Amino acid sequence: MTGTRILDIDRRTLAVEESSPRFYDFTAVARRYGARLARDLETVSNRCDPVADAAVNALSRLSPGRARRLIDAAATGAVDPDLEAPELLLVLLDEMTVVPDWVDAARIDRGRRAFLRAGPGGLVAAFFYSLPLEYSSPAGSKVLMLTGSLSRRAKRRLAETGRYIAAILAPGGLEVGSPGWSITFRVRLMHAQVRRLAGNSGLWEGAWGPPINQLFMIGTSLGLPCSFSEGLPRLGWAVDEDEAEDVLFLWRYAGWLMGCDASLLPTSVDEASRMAEAILCAQGRPDDDCRALVDAMLGATPISWLQGKHWFRAATSDLIRRLIGDDLADPLGLPENTGSPTYRLLRLFLAGYGGMQHVPGGGRLLTAIGGRIWEAVVRSLLAGRKPTYQLPQRLALNRGAG
Amino acid sequence: MTDPSSWIEASDLDRLFEGSEPVHVPAGGEILTPEEAPDALYLVEEGRIQVERADGGERFVVAQLGPGEVVGEMSLILDRPATAHIVATDDAKVRRLPRDLLVSRLDADPLLAARTYRSLAAVLARRLLATTALMSEPLVPTARGMRSGNATTIQIPAALVATVDAFRRGMDRLQEEASAGSFDEAALQRAVAEQCDALLTGLEAELTPEALVDAGWSDLLSLRDTSAVAAGLGDYVYREVLPFLLQSSAFAHCAARAGGFAGDAETEAVLLQPDADGDGVLGPGVDAWFRHRAFVQSRRERREMIEPLLRAVVPGGHVFVLGGGNGRELRRALGQEVHATVVDSDPEALAALGQRLARAGSRDLVTLVQADILGVVRGVTPMSLPPLSFAYAVGLSDHLTSDQMAEVIEWAAGLLSPGGTLAATFTAADCPDRVLVDEVIGWRVQRWTEEAVRSVFGRRKAEMIRSATGVTLLATSRG
Hints:
Helix content of chain A is about 65%, strand content about 0%. By secondary structure, chain A is mainly α. Chain B is about 45% helix and about 20% strand.
């Protein structure tokens, strides 16, 4: 097969030998990317997010109601002193509300607009490039597969991911107290809680490394900027270098807010590509759990009447394969040669759609359309429900009533 | 009462007791009695004496002393009457040093007085430190925490809600049918047991590690970990079905115990009663179901496992019981010429045991000591024991940590005569009814794997057998 390649990972690197560690292979990283990066990645694979973990531990000692009220208050960016929030929650809040010196609001705004301009192309790349990459980590997939039922929640997960991206792409989406910032704050706490649940479940194996560790977090944070710089060109969308750098900057700050170690978050697109390749190389070959997650994702459609439609599944499989490349699509169990014309049609459509950028006012129009597209897709995926990083009271009441 | 070697040099002791009066005290004779004004210090030369406290018509030993030890020093220092009986347990020889003579001797020799009082102060300080340390010793909690705030509504699985609803409907239906005379007693008990079993099975299915992670995941920002979610599901079931379970007299007793302490003698006595009892039409059925649960059965079973070992003690042997509790096995299997010393911190349990032993005609064979077993092991409560033929602990491991249990085993093993036996029961880590015990009743019982049990026996070889119910591990080791 003369397949495409994702980034610069080739089959030889992904095909970890039987005798190699199954979940992490830093020897391969050292061989290919140098001992220093391998050492750095190995170090961060054992680190998590101590600030969020400590905050969650402190909050877990409170009643769920009080903890929730404090989280709601903190998610606005400030907590009334009368609420007497645990000190460790305030430490997390301080970390997330003090904007680092390196943050450039104008670049962030350019980055979000560039992403939105890509409209349907950006959306397809975000879902069908970054999520399969995230699911290709054998250790990372264990968090999602721990109970065996989480793969069934694929649609909700897609909806929550979409809601997160859409909120960050909104104007001022990363400003303290904005919806994007607020979701990031909640998701960071949720990650910490997942670490507690997984770590204390008795089901978590040491070979998987700490759940949602820095290696996984950084890899995930690179998925979206790489979907823009690497994925969109595969769909025929011409990506300007400066735009790609701005988009990376946007997601760099989002990753930092999410708790990623700033020293390892790439500052250039080239560095991001190399880092993403190295992380893919480090995490070993996709296993059955990775394949199950991708399979569940393929079954989660934004519109209910698409559910179970063979042609839709074939189209999305084909799109993913085209975006991530055969060398990763094969071990993820994606079918070859589905015969779907979607990829070619999408390329054709995006060529015309992208042409609107070059007419006066076209860029602003595409940005606005992109925002609407994201909102519409998220609304469709949520199907009237709130994502769970919002208050689940309504769902609780529904259950009680049922 | 003090070992004088710990508070004064031998030469000083000789000088103190110079000219003291030798006294012979026959077995059972009292050296000091409560309310008696302190007039002398006593040094034990031969035989054994013990300090006894009267409570509820029973006399409990609070300390045992042997040759070389001194009694009466506390009353003498405080110049107030004794608070306990000092009794010779066998023919004893003591030296009596009158208070006037002691005072004049110390007045005449300030250096001797200083050494004596300093040493005595050191002894009292050490005793206070040991007692304080014992009070702050971390024990396995005996009670679960609050029955609220452990899980959110959304974390309660729909399947469990359905199970609970089915249980309530089923019990209501049984009540109606039984009231209408549709059941004989045995059929009703079977039907009630089926409902209760289904409820417990439904709860157990939601408490597997996978199910708990799933439930925790369903509401991540409630920040409950799996143990909290498990407790929360138990809380939910407890709240929803309590009116039905409370109709069982045994369950009602357990629910009424403050903190749900599983090891107290009264609860054990209630659980050991053979007859089902309860309120209303369904109460006896629920009670019978509850009494037949493996964990409840194990209360009887673990004492029965001790009985063959107790019967094997040859006449003249001495048995030491670490944590007496109900003492059922003593009444049933203690040989006629075998003596036993029972240590328990619960005076009510000791009083009840004393009365039962008296009714069985074996009270004279048993010395009841009211003390914390860790205090005995660490010397806070002095004890003078003969070499032991058999030492055993039933249920002690339910509420001690592995380090504490290892300390107790090590100490008791050191008291065994050659060929003596040491035995202890442990609640198995994978015992049945874990969910009923932990999450519904709310008892906190330390559980042990076989490996953990072996580790507390250290280098001593321990043989292990498991009870028929699967709840109890009996470990025995030969001296």
